[in-house]
Amino acid sequence: MIRFECDYTEGAHERILKRLLETNDEQTSGYGTDPHCELARAYIKKACDAEPADVHFLVGGTQTNTTVIASILRPHQGVIAAISGHIAVHETGAIEATGHKVLTLTSDDGKIRAEQVKELVEVHWSDATHEHMVQPGMVYISQPTENGTIYSKSELEALSRVCRESGLPLFIDGARLGYALAAEDNDLSLADIARLCDVFYIGGTKIGAMMGEAVVIVNEALKKDFRYHIKQKGGLLAKGRMLGIQFETLFEDGLYFEISKHAVDMAVLLRDVLTEQGIPFQYHSTTNQQFPILPDRLLEELKENYSFSFWEKADETHSAVRFCTSWATKRENVEKLIEDIKRLR
Amino acid sequence: MIRFECDYTEGAHERILKRLLETNDEQTSGYGTDPHCELARAYIKKACDAEPADVHFLVGGTQTNTTVIASILRPHQGVIAAISGHIAVHETGAIEATGHKVLTLTSDDGKIRAEQVKELVEVHWSDATHEHMVQPGMVYISQPTENGTIYSKSELEALSRVCRESGLPLFIDGARLGYALAAEDNDLSLADIARLCDVFYIGGTKIGAMMGEAVVIVNEALKKDFRYHIKQKGGLLAKGRMLGIQFETLFEDGLYFEISKHAVDMAVLLRDVLTEQGIPFQYHSTTNQQFPILPDRLLEELKENYSFSFWEKADETHSAVRFCTSWATKRENVEKLIEDIKRLR
Amino acid sequence: MIRFECDYTEGAHERILKRLLETNDEQTSGYGTDPHCELARAYIKKACDAEPADVHFLVGGTQTNTTVIASILRPHQGVIAAISGHIAVHETGAIEATGHKVLTLTSDDGKIRAEQVKELVEVHWSDATHEHMVQPGMVYISQPTENGTIYSKSELEALSRVCRESGLPLFIDGARLGYALAAEDNDLSLADIARLCDVFYIGGTKIGAMMGEAVVIVNEALKKDFRYHIKQKGGLLAKGRMLGIQFETLFEDGLYFEISKHAVDMAVLLRDVLTEQGIPFQYHSTTNQQFPILPDRLLEELKENYSFSFWEKADETHSAVRFCTSWATKRENVEKLIEDIKRLR
Amino acid sequence: MIRFECDYTEGAHERILKRLLETNDEQTSGYGTDPHCELARAYIKKACDAEPADVHFLVGGTQTNTTVIASILRPHQGVIAAISGHIAVHETGAIEATGHKVLTLTSDDGKIRAEQVKELVEVHWSDATHEHMVQPGMVYISQPTENGTIYSKSELEALSRVCRESGLPLFIDGARLGYALAAEDNDLSLADIARLCDVFYIGGTKIGAMMGEAVVIVNEALKKDFRYHIKQKGGLLAKGRMLGIQFETLFEDGLYFEISKHAVDMAVLLRDVLTEQGIPFQYHSTTNQQFPILPDRLLEELKENYSFSFWEKADETHSAVRFCTSWATKRENVEKLIEDIKRLR
Questions:
Q1: Could you give the ipTM of this predicted complex?
Q2: By the 8 A CB rule, do C34 and C28 touch?
Q3: Rounded Cα distance, D177 and D132, in Å
Q4: A222, A253, A284 - which closes a domain
Q5: Does C126 touch chain D (CB under 8 A)?
Q6: Percent of chain B with pLDDT strictly greater than 70
Q7: Do strands C293-295 and C318-324 pair parallel, antiparallel, or not at all (unpaired)?
Q8: Does the pLDDT value for residue A345 go beyond 90?
Q9: What is the pLDDT of residue A248?
Q10: Do A62 and B29 touch (CB under 8 A)?
Q11: Residues C158, B290: Cα–Cα separation, whole Å
Q12: Which of D97, D72, D38 is closest to D226 using CA atoms?
């Protein structure tokens, strides 16, 4: 079985494991106060050109989204997100469990537009009975989105502008951020992202680490007491250095960007060959997730040797499915997949 | 600096790191559905003589306590715990954040007694206006406690009996469970624990693992939908096998018990020598945490080379402090500490 | 200014005020344990032909919805509702504030269909990763809906069947229940409603009372500890008899039904005359809320003497608005409104 | 049966009922936006000499406490209160249900001292791991307390000073505020109270109204969006004028103070005569609640004709009980009670 069902089917990058071994006997203080976390923070702030930012390491994506969002909103506020956003669909109501509604906007491709946010805000405040409705309190987007698409610089600037005009902090879920940065059509640097939003995170779990997400808080007003929130939400890892060592390794010399690029290269290889074969795609993705629409019959046969995710029915006899590549994807496996799809058509 | 401030100052047991390296290239499914988690579950159920139990792997202690407790209680119920219990003091209100009060019982040594639970329950139900008060919904204890003490079999049997008579699930926080099992005066087996409570967890973070806690749900009624709760509370690790591999290693041939014993041996060595020196202890601990009462002057000097935790003032010139040993504690460091305390008295 | 903006612009039915005066000096116990509450419960159970039901009196609608829903769901569950449902739109996220997502279904007329519920449930359970999503835990509908429409007996039977097959309690928000019972096309009795759902409430605030909603719990499994939930959610009125006396008056001899009918008669009068005038309506309502589509120009003029609610733009020059009648609406005011609309067209 | 078990055994003051009748046919807008609420707000602000304050009307005490506290705290913060405080004991965990711990301080008489607050705050911030503990976020007291005692001006000034130095909003639960203001030893005016705290409420339910509490928000920073919080917590009464009319009546010419004084006079009459008889009291109360310690034998006999509340066992053969007077207490009933106690001793 060759796995393309998600981007966390392997362990961790070998350099990370090696570093864990080398540092294993060191004695350090806990909860992220150790030298490795310090170093990792410095590397990340440099990569983001955001020296005054606060950087915190959490374990996983749902935990990170919940902790950040719950730390920002007041009880009567909700978070604006795409209807397909991870927090709106795939976190078992973690946001609602902290008391907040997810205010969803329609989206065909996983992205939301500045004008949509603007309209939602205007509709809220123009309603005479607005206090009977959840007040928009912040905006959540993912880069790349759950559909593999990315925001361009101009799109993010527009969103950022509307958010600032409306007093809404902008939070970017970067669980797969490296894969967006490596996209052929990306024109956003880490520094742009740090500049345009209020808080974001750099995903490790899906890009080379065993686990771990690095939250970067740019907006001064959101920094206060954040470690309390992490602890309360169960994200303050006792052996915090495990996260520090991983991000130290990923960011000391650009490993994060290098392995992200590999994943995207593999995905684009798959996409381009299938496109040449006349196979349509559900979304135009330039990142590590690809959503070809294939005959159900072919998919049945593919399942014997490959794992992938069912996305949605396209018509009576075809379905959109998702193939994920990752930092660990072997070129030979992608080539084998391509050959098998060609053969089975 | 030699660290005794807590039991997670080092990385992971070398066999765990070795196993992570060996299995790193395997492709597996996520979220704890992989073969390593399966194997670890089988080992743990065998060790607990609890075949029908459900075993789940979570990342850390606060997360585990919150997830278990929130999955059991209805909105108007609270959890009974010692006033010194971890959930009552050191989790930034994580239980309250899920909507539930911690109903505290006084305790001198970290333990609560069956009669205390019985009385609290009777007082609640005998009050004519009981619906104006939080209803007791379950009982939380830790084995060993935050003070290093352990419940004997007869104490746990008595608690278990009262809980069952009162319809209150009994939950045991076993963040340091191995250290209790290795105590000289312990008469409880893992199987006894599984038999006497409804749900408990076996701590990995403090005993050999990088991170990870294994929840064992014994009571059939508490098993339903538990994975939803883990996901919602941010504890469903994407690369779940990281936890599975660690517990597989710890439980395949008794490593967990072996390294627990080492930690306790080191703590007892420290305790016995200091006791011979006439140094009093705040609690009678037979596990890996020791709480000697030492002159403040001496503590000031010790701080230069050792880390440990301040516990509480004993009198004007003395304080109780905590020294933790662990699976990774080096005998030579304990001996050095002993010599320095002797020398500095 | 003649008010049609909602159904609570006046005080209470004069018989209620009279009864409050008569009983004012009585001394009774608090929190709904007094003889008036007991009598009101008996009347209501009789009216519903539901002797074994539990009846509780709460103060307002949002409070009642929140209390009932939070008492039923487990933390990982959500409540299914129409996208236009009161809990989904107009309660400032009260349901989410108790930790639960509202799982919305599309609706053109405020009603949801049995097949929609069935499909949502099937989609949830057929998804391999269902534990990453909020589990459907109950169904909420309103009778009549926020759009003035009502469920027929066959529609409610179908919903009830799907709910029972799926293990989902069915909760009916009856804030305006009397107005549904009085509708010309209604074929559901109070007894039918009690038989087909698990819990519902009979609204007093909008139908003759100063305030108050009578919750009727039919499903035995939902009765346990409900008074704790009421108290926790702030709904256990100290002088509970104030609610008991009002419902006693409304249900001792059919006053509730009589005044409901008056409101509906007034609404139908308005609707029928405007329809004759060729004025279209946004929804086909047979209850006390009517939603004519009128020229914006005319609405501007009407505003000088009448209050009503803007609903939504119909086209560039027309808007749908809402006129509510109530138990207190004076026929002469409706006739004046009709004349003015006729005149201003 | 003559009732002294609580201060809400009767209906409402006759002038309130009369006013409700007189205004019953008026048509007004809902949710507290009507002229009666406006007038009541003006009267209350004048009585408090707090023109810039915001005044909101809620229905009951638990709801008010929950709404105010949840509107102020951030998720990781708790509210400091006496261990006997209403929010700590008698609200079924309503505060915890909104996610917040009640940080309790010991108290013999229901009051907390400025030094206790100061110490709790200092202990929190001096702990190196303070982020593992709930952060103190505000202070809650009641005036008078649940034990009938009152804060003096110097005590309240000291508390206020510590709160302001520590950045903790001070919230006063005034469910029985009138009875404190009428106490013989009271030296605090409504204006003092408004000046010394950040938010407080004036209780109507226990002092003449059918129901209703008037929240006065003095601190500018706490005013924002408060109506959203009221709505979300189920406290925004549709027919808000019902509350406005009651407070208008109570505050237009001092009725609130006059009837409060009557209740206190009746309580003091009872206290003084029993004291003369050599009967001890559990607390020294100068307000409407009195806690004599009486022989259990006598209490058994009293129960046949009087209702009162059991408080706690004093010794093997005596118990402290609570007698409440109110605005509606008849002097002849107090005299009868006194005679019966004298006779039965």
A1: 0.97
A2: yes
A3: 37
A4: A253
A5: no
A6: 100
A7: antiparallel
A8: no
A9: 98
A10: no
A11: 66
A12: D72
Is residue B208 domain-shared with residue B72, that is, in the same domain? yes
Range of the domain at A279: 2-7+256-344
* Domain co-membership, D143 together with D230: yes
Nearest CB to B75; choose among C70, C76, C135: C70
pLDDT tens figures, A196-250: 999 999 999 999 999 999 999 999 999 999 999 999 999 999 999 999 999 999 9
Question: How many residues are listed for chain C in this entry?
Answer: 345
- If DSSP codes are grouped into helix, strand and coil, which group holds residue C274? helix
Could you say which of B254, B278, B307 is where a domain stops?
B254
Rg (CA), chain C: 20
CA distance A264 to D93: 51
In a shared domain, residues A240 and A301? no
Residues 6+ apart with CB under 8 A from C164: none
Total of domains in chain C? 2
* CA distances for B256 relative to B13, B202, B261, C163, angstroms: 10, 10, 9, 48
Residue D314 DSSP one-character state: E
For residue C135, give the 3-state DSSP assignment. strand
Instruction: Give the tens place of pLDDT for each residue, D158-195.
Output: 999 999 999 999 999 999 999 999 999 999 999 999 99
d(CA C289, CA C6): 8
Query: What are phi and psi for residue B87, nearest 5 degrees?
Result: -65, -25
Rounded CA separation B149/B186 (Å):
10
B334 has a chain A CB within 8 A of its CB: no
**Residue pLDDT, tens place only, B199-232:** 999 999 999 999 999 999 999 999 999 999 999 9
Cα separations in angstroms, A309 against A320, A334, C132? 9, 16, 14
Is B97 in Cβ contact with D99 (below 8 Å)? yes
Statement: residue D264 has pLDDT above 90: yes
Q: Is the pLDDT reported for residue D16 higher than 90? A: yes
DSSP code string of D209-238: SSS-EEEEE-SGGGTTTHHHHHHHTT---T
D204 and D140 in a common domain? yes
Q: Which of B225, B229, B230, B237 to mutate to test the interface with C (most CBs of C within 10 A)?
A: B225
Paired with C79 in beta bridges are C102, C138
Sheet with A54-58: strands ordered across: A54-58, A213-217, A199-203, A170-173, A135-142, A77-82, A102-105
Query: Do C235 and D63 count as a contact with CB atoms less than 8 A apart?
Result: yes
- Residue A141: give its domain's CATH number: 3.40.640.10
Q: How far apart are CA A10 and CA B30, in angstroms?
A: 9
- Residues D137 and D215 placed together within one structural domain of the fold: yes
C305 and C332 co-located in one domain: yes
Chain D: residue whose CA lies nearest to B102? D101
**Which of D92, D132, D135 is closest, CB to CB, to B134?**
D92
Q: What is the CATH number of the domain that holds B283?
A: 3.90.1150.10
Q: Do A63 and B235 make contact, defined as CB atoms within 8 angstroms?
A: yes
The whole-model pTM stands at: 0.98
Residues A74 and A64: their CA atoms lie apart, in Å, by 18
Q: Integer distance in angstroms from the first to the last C-alpha of chain C?
A: 20
SS3 category, A280 = coil
pLDDT digits 0-9 by tens, C281-316: 999 999 999 999 999 999 999 999 999 999 999 999
**How many CA atoms lie less than 13 Å away from B241 in the CB half-sphere?**
23
What's the rounded Cα separation, in Å, for the pair C48 and C187?
15
Give the C-alpha separation, D19 to D24, whole Å: 8
- φ and ψ at residue A293, rounded to 5 degrees: -105, 115
Residue D345: pLDDT band by 50, 70, 90 thresholds?
Answer: confident
Q: D93 and C232: CB-CB below 8 Å?
A: yes
Q: D243 with D260, same domain?
A: no
What is the arithmetic mean of pLDDT over C70-82? Answer: 98
The tokens for C52 are: 């074994």
3-class DSSP state for residue D344?
helix
